[in-house]
């Protein structure tokens, strides 16, 4: 970035215009944050005259440079990084420009975002350009950041800045003064096929024809038969295979494939029954009915390693694994990347000592209660926690069959309707209508308010069906009088309480995490 800002990196005239959109820029920063490879840059060393230099929206002036670096391949990535990190944008609370290179980091979810369409950036989001300089970031946090008193969030921001600053991008330099050669290379690099995804790399290296499953796609299709949806190939299956082998799941897969090529030959056939056990555990014991409701993928990935080594854990181990899973969901001090790496490495040949090592990585006591987010986002962990609490209430349909009210098949609804299975109660957006408390797990299309109103007219405001959707009599009366603000306010209290109650029940904060009696007797640790 320093070389870009000094004008030592130039974009030649034959380069194509910028094509990336805001989502591409956000994904790039997310890849850098997680240590994923973003591909190498291809540059050409050649003289560059003095004058104005433009790198996307950046406008610089550079002196004459005898050996500048002209971009042959990597313009989109280099421009996104340079503009995102070096071009200050308006601060939080000010109107946001329509600019693909304005990116914010949310330390609560550890995700990057473009500014909302409304321009109202949530409090606590950190402009990415603030992360480039450690000293300036520290000063800004102390003097201006609204969340400066939160030690956990401060640590997340500093870690994000460190990861961005220290990320290493490989590059090649062509030593030729002939621009025509660079044009030929550019054409061949940019017109011959499409860039491979990580899953494509795995399938190309280790997939083979024969007994299915042998590719990540085939494995995903087979696991979808469990009834929890198909695991994501990139974020769940591939790191799960790495975890199964006990390798560092935070390293780029290309490096692992190079260093441990024999480890991944035939691994998919071995992994299929392991993943089925993990999914069964999450559904039956941890009460996660569908992968779309899984707040984080890390528990799934770590559990792959555990069930690979211990396919039939005893009852005490299952109880402690549920605690570990839910404490990892709810622990405010969790570092997902660290937990993933240490979780896998903590699991060894002894079942119960492995569980104890896993539990040592997460908090055993809840530091703070769950707080409902202001906006519902089906991809965000906080919103998924709310959906898990709704699912745990065993929501019922509004129709009666043979005198009994059937339960909503949540997994089937998500499979058939995706995120539309999380219906809004009141239609519209913004304000209270954006809250997770305005969402319901109920069959049908569009807003559910009218269907609920008709049901209440027949049954009244106090019955088991409404309770199964966390709709209290007071909330039902607000629904009847079409008072969305009151309905959301009342239900938000009940929904947050339901999440906390579910956490208490499954994480079992503060309980004795001892191994089984049999294990203690065998170890001689029980008097």
Task: Give the SSE layout.
Layout: H1 2-5, E1 9-10, H2 22-34, E2 41-48, E3 51-55, E4 58-62, E5 65-73, H3 75-86, E6 104-106, E7 111-113, E8 126-127, H4 134-143, H5 151-166, E9 171-174, H6 179-191, H7 198-206, H8 216-224, H9 233-244, H10 253-259, H11 267-284, H12 298-309, H13 315-330, H14 336-345, H15 351-359, H16 381-392, H17 410-417, E10 422-424, E11 439-441, H18 449-459, H19 464-467, H20 473-480, H21 484-507, H22 517-523
Parallel strand pairs: 1-5, 2-9
Antiparallel strand pairs: 2-5, 3-4, 6-7, 6-8, 10-11
Helix pairs in contact: 4-5, 8-11, 9-12, 11-12, 12-14, 13-15, 16-21, 20-21
Task: Walk me through this protein's architecture.
The structure is a single chain. This protein is an alpha+beta fold and 527 residues long. Helix 16 (381-392) crosses helix 21. The termini are far apart. A 4-stranded mixed beta sheet has the order 1-5-2-9. The chain has helices at 2-5, 22-34, 75-86, 134-143, 151-166, 179-191, 198-206, 216-224, 233-244, 253-259, 267-284, 298-309, 315-330, 336-345, 351-359, 381-392, 410-417, 449-459, 464-467, 473-480, 484-507, 517-523; strands at residues 9-10, 41-48, 51-55, 58-62, 65-73, 104-106, 111-113, 126-127, 171-174, 422-424, 439-441. The longest helix is centred in the C-terminal third of the chain and has 24 residues, at 484-507. It is globular, with a radius of gyration of 26 Å.
Number of domains: 3
Number of strands: 11
Query: What are the segments in which pLDDT stays under 50 over at least 5 consecutive residues?
Result: none
N- to C-terminal distance: 63 Å
Structural class of the secondary elements?
Answer: alpha+beta
> Shape, please?
globular
Please summarize the sheet with the most strands: 4 strands, mixed
Specify Rg, calculated over alpha carbons.
26 Å
